[in-house]
Amino acid sequence: MLCYLTTGKHMAIYVSVLVVLVLLAITAVTALIFGFGGAMAARSRFLPLSWFGKGYIAIVRGVPDIAFFLFFVLALDIGFEMLRHGIKCPDWTAPIWQGNDFVVCPEAKLPLGNAPQWVHETYAFFLAVLTFSIVFGAFAANVLYGAMRAVPRAQLETAEAYGMTHRQTFWRVLVPQMWVYALPGLSNLWMVLIKATPLLFLLGIEDIVYWARELGGSKTPRFTDYPHGDWRMWYFLALLVFYLAFTRVSEIALDRIMRRLTHGQATLAGEAQRKAAT
Amino acid sequence: MKSILLGTAALALTASMALAASHGAVVRMGTEGAYPPYNFINDKGEVDGFERELGDELCKRAELTCEWVTNEWDSIIPNLVAGNYDVIIAGMSITAERDAVIDFTQNYTQPDPSAYLVAPGNEGLDVSKAVIAAQAATIQASFVASNGATLVEFATPEETISAVRNGEADAVLADKAYLDPIDAESEDLVMLERTELIGGGVGMGLRESDGELKAKFDAAIQSMKDDGTLNALIAKWEIGEAF
């Protein structure tokens, strides 16, 4: 049994667990930045910027995730390569679209055709991160936009009464207070994000779902030293346990953060905390 | 005049050589990695099988540096066309439909008959009326669809076998070379006598705009056919008939 679980192939699934965790860590941060930018744009008093922010939120929220995932990864890749093609090979005369083929000059390939395989994999990974960030950023933007509006108006008026500028009010009063309103929505998003990681598999990244299927598939003794029947059920069961444990841990962590953020806030829960302390 | 002509010829030559040098650096070989004995992932997590050995030998003969990548069968042609790799070497039979989108080298296997696996006791199955499992976007799938039988498609070869085991389909139709080892190992599946001769042999798939690379691989395949090494490989991995 132990031998089964330590073959080179199994090392690949352990690595893919790390890949998923790293993806989550990076995506959570970038999506939050995208979301913050989107929310700030949406409530901007400069109309075109506000339209841009609201348009971004509306479009991404309205289109099925999976369509976006499949579209963005292809479109981003083609877009980057066309851009590089234009910059690096101005003398290239052959058309880029030859029938079905998409042909850019070798120098414009991203990553370069002769780059080692890990570069290709890293590139695909970051395309995935960018796509995840764009999609989840829109949802985060909507949550933050709502949270910014939920901060009691009296707080902002008080800040203005103290003579704070618009910018000072935003950064010193509004932003610190909005998190408590944003957190329930953001924690939902985090859970959805965890559950969305198997979509990586659709983007051609060999994630845990790919390896669970590959490793669980039945193996005949001719091609392996470790033959077995159809074990996919057990591998997928392990995935189930992994995801369940992961979301449970996240829930506990998020509860703690919520308790901290509530401290001293003008909300019902904050009020309850204050009363319990006295 | 003559010197101008010579000059342009020299320019064109160096340009094409520079192109070849930058292009010939690394050829990326795309395969599925789930279709033994043609290609599969071995215990070390590397691509292995008939096509791994064949591909490595072809690259050596064509003096190319090759790198192996795996890709889902479903999207293996779109990703070639988009330039994510340069060659498909994944047990892909040469068909007119595929040839319209990509180019094929000459075939490196004989047309391999496709066979059926069924549950024991079901040998009398009428395959033209039964429910047949096949991998999506394969010659077997289009054969079943045109044959009047009910087709159930799956993304991987593995799932087509499971479908027969759990009764979802009456039979699975796939390349005989793929089904033979499974038939030999498992008691719960038997192979029908009947085979279907479909497809024009397996070849390497390349972009239509990549004629130069195609010529190199064609020449390499021809040289392996001529000196018998291809037949030796076919015999070693039990891939149907020799040339």
Explain this structure to me?
The complex is a heterodimer of chains A (about 280) and B (about 240). Chain A is mainly alpha-helical and about 280 residues long. Chain A has a single domain, classed as MetI-like (MetI-like fold, Orthogonal Bundle). Chain A has 9 helices and 2 strands. In chain A, helix 1 packs parallel to helix 4 and helix 3 packs across helix 4. The longest helix of chain A is centred in the first third of the chain and has 35 residues, at about 10-40. Chain B is α/β, with parallel strands linked by helices and about 240 residues long. Chain B is about 40% helix and about 20% strand. Chain B contains 9 helices and 13 strands. Chain B has a 5-stranded mixed β-sheet with strand order 5-1-6-13-7. A 5-stranded mixed β-sheet of chain B has the order 10-9-11-8-12, sandwiched between helices.
Keywords:
heterodimer, A: about 280 residues, mainly alpha, MetI-like fold, about 0% strand, B: about 240 residues, alpha/beta, D-Maltodextrin-Binding Protein, domain 2, 2 domains, five-stranded mixed beta sheet
Detail the poorly predicted runs of chain A: none
User: What's the average pLDDT of chain B?
Assistant: 84
Order of helices and strands of chain A: HHHEEHHHHHH
User: What's the Cα radius of gyration of chain A?
Assistant: 24 Å
**CATH homologous superfamily caption of the largest domain in chain B:** Periplasmic binding protein-like II
The strand line-up of the biggest sheet of chain A is: 1-2
Q: What overall form of chain A do the CA principal axes indicate?
A: flat
The largest chain-to-chain contact, stated as pair and per-chain residue counts, equals: A-B, 40 and 47 residues
CATH topology of the largest domain in chain B: D-Maltodextrin-Binding Protein, domain 2
Q: Could you say which structural class the secondary elements and strand pairing of chain B correspond to?
A: alpha/beta
CATH topology of chain A: MetI-like fold
Distance between the termini of chain B: 52 Å
| Computed structural class of chain A | mainly alpha
Oligomeric organization of the protein chains: heterodimer
What is the CATH class name of the largest domain in chain B?
Alpha Beta
Count all strands of chain A and give the number.
2
The total count of helices of chain A amounts to 9
Largest sheet of chain B: 5 strands, mixed
Number of domains of chain A: 1
Q: What string gives the helices and strands of chain B in order?
A: HEEEEHEHEHEEEHEHEHEEHH
